[in-house]
Amino acid sequence: MNEIKLLNDTLELIGDDGTEKAYDYLLSNLDHIDNRSSQVYNFLYCLAATSGKQGEALDWLEEAIVEKGLWYRPEVYEDEDLDSIREDDRFKEYSTISLARYHDALKTVETVFTWREVKGNNLIIVLHGNQQNNEISKSHWSEIDSPENQVEYLQSHEIDSYQLYRWEDDGDGPTQLKQAIHSMDLNKYSLKVLAGFSAGCNTILRAIKAGDVECDKIILQSPWIPCIQNELDELMSIILKKNIEILMICGLNDEVSLSQCLEFDKKSKEIGMNCKTVLIEGLGHEYPDQFKEIVSEFL
Q1: Sign of torsion, CA 118 119 120 122?
Q2: What is the pTM of this model?
Q3: CATH architecture of 112-298
Q4: What is d(CA 213, CA 182) in angstroms, rounded to the nearest whole number?
Q5: Separation CA 170–CA 168 (nearest Å)
Q6: Residue 32 to residues 26, 67, 140, 143, 274, Cα–Cα distance (Å)
Q7: Strand ordering across the sheet containing 112-113
Q8: Does residue 137 contact residue 199 with C-beta atoms inside 8 Å?
Q9: At how many degrees (to 10) do helices 38-49 and 54-62 cross?
Q10: Do 150 and 142 meet the contact criterion of CB atoms below 8 Å apart?
Q11: 264 and 229 Cβ atoms separated by less than 8 Å
């Protein structure tokens, strides 16, 4: 079990009766992941705090901030899930330490693009999702890498928490993508592919709409694409005009992305756009087991 699946399964257990069941499930499965990321700790202290276990919540926060040296962006501490511990002196101490580290990180963070040289005939540039990084992308996309397909990764400079990053809906992600592409010799590749997971998909479509980037194909995995709101017709027109082929993969249990995916798919069929949509039974907001096969066939 990887971290993404564990957290998604945990979220599915939050129901009308509260969060205690989800908290217990997460606790019982912590040994199934190698490392506890800042996101895992965020789940732990938030679920504990909303399950009437304020002491445990503060202990998890202490472990994350004091023992592990982690930190979070300010918005994390505004979460109403933390209301039950917000006035505790320990919470104030740990959040103050965390925010100081966040502001220090802002001074040095930069976009990370892995490309260094031409190594294949086809180029695939992968954008991570929110609360992810290049290493998480590599854990899913490295199996696509081959002498023919060169996979490279783009990591945002918009920070989320310790070693995790995000693409804000209205952030400068398209500019980051444009600058990365312009830093290389794109013309040496026969096939140019832009690929993203979740919010990374939104950044790609925003860049396409702005005319900042060119590509032959786009792969949208679990696409979180709020950019289609009020702009879908214009975006589709641009994609159709540029003759870009699109592969969209989404789980039928994906409460984050499914509705947007279906809206995009419906519109693409109406206008005759080259869009292949693969819907996976029983899959949430995550990569499917048959990911390599689906992508390789599209490429």
Answers
A1: negative
A2: 0.92
A3: 3-Layer(aba) Sandwich (3.40)
A4: 9
A5: 5
A6: 10, 21, 18, 22, 40
A7: 112-113, 149-155, 122-127, 191-197, 217-221, 245-251, 275-280
A8: no
A9: 160
A10: no
A11: no
Q: What is the pLDDT along the chain (299 residues), one digit of tens a residue?
A: 788 889 988 988 887 778 999 999 999 999 888 888 999 999 999 999 999 999 999 999 999 999 999 999 999 999 999 999 999 999 999 999 999 999 999 999 999 999 999 999 999 999 999 999 999 999 999 999 999 999 999 999 999 999 999 999 999 999 999 999 999 988 899 999 999 999 999 999 999 999 879 999 999 999 999 999 988 999 999 999 999 999 999 999 999 999 999 999 999 999 999 999 999 999 999 999 999 999 999 99
Residue 1 is predicted with a pLDDT of: 72
Domain ranges of the chain: 3-106, 112-298
- Spell out the residues 6+ positions from residue 153 whose beta carbon is closer than 8 angstroms to its own: 112, 113, 114, 125, 126, 127, 128, 134, 137, 138, 141
Tokens of 168: 């804000």
Residue 112's DSSP bridge partners are 155
- Which residues contact residue 115 at a Cβ distance below 8 angstroms, ignoring those fewer than 6 apart? 125, 152, 180, 183, 184
Instruction: Check: CB of residue 223 under 8 Å from CB of residue 202.
Output: yes
Category of 131 on φ-ψ map: left (φ > 0), alpha (ψ -120 to 50) or beta = left
pLDDT of residue 5: 85
Q: DSSP string spanning 30-47?
A: GGGSSS--HHHHHHHHHH
Which residue type occupies 232? L
Written in H, E and C, the secondary structure of 72-108 is ECHHHHHCHHHCCCCCCHHHHHHHHHHHHHHHHHHCC
Bridge partners, residue 113, by sequence: 154
